[in-house]
Amino acid sequence: MNLLNSIDQGIALAVARVEPLDLQPPALPPLDIRASMPALESVLSFDWSGFGLSELDQAPRLLTTPRVRFPENLRSRGVNRALVELNVMIDEGGRVFLREIVKNPHPQLSSEIRLLAQRARFTPPKKGGRSVRAVFIWPVEFTDE
After folding, report:
1. Which of 6, 27, 51, 53 is most enclosed, with most CB atoms within 10 A?
2. What are the backbone angles phi and psi of residue 57, rounded to the nearest 5°?
3. Which residues, 6 or more positions from 52, have their beta carbon under 8 angstroms from its beta carbon?
4. Buried b vs exposed e over 40-62: b needs ≥16 C-beta within 10 Å?
C-alpha cells in the first residue's frame, strides 16, 4: 500500500508493519509459600481443653430450649424418642461447641444435633468464681412432641 493514498482528498494513510514480539515472563525469585505463612495446623487449631464438671463451682445450667425437628422418616417408622450423647465444650460465655457425637442411634438426627449445639446457651462455667471453659458429655433426649 502506498504511504500516501490520496493527496487529492487530503487524507494520508500510512502502512505500519508489526513484527510479532517474543515476550518472555519476567524472572521472579522462587516463592516458598510455606515459609511466609504460619503452619496450617496452628492457624486452624482450636483449644478444646476445659475443666470437667466435677472441677467447677457448679454445673452449668441450660438457658435456652432450642427447637429442633424430629425427622419425619423416624416418626413414620414408629420411633418417637432417641437418647444421644454429645461431647461438648462450653466456653466462658456459655456457648456450646460440639466436639463429637458420642452416641447417636439414628444418623438422621445428626443435622438436628448440630443445630441444637449451635443454638444452645448455658450459664458460663465457673471455677473459683471465674468464667472458664468446661468439657463434658451432654446427654440429650430427642422426642417427637
Report:
1. 51
2. -60, -40
3. 134, 135, 136
4. eeeeeeeeeebbeeeebeeebee
pLDDT of residue 34: 62
pLDDT for 23-82, tens place per residue? Answer: 677 777 776 666 656 665 555 666 778 899 899 999 999 999 888 888 999 999 999 999
Any idea which residue has 462455667 for its cell?
125
Amino acid at 93: G
Sorted by where each starts, the structural domains of the chain and their CATH numbers stand as: 47-143 (3.30.2420.10)
Is the confidence at residue 9, as pLDDT, over 60?
Answer: no
C-alpha cell at 106: 439414628
Query: At CA 38, angle to CA 32 and CA 44, rounded to 5?
Result: 125
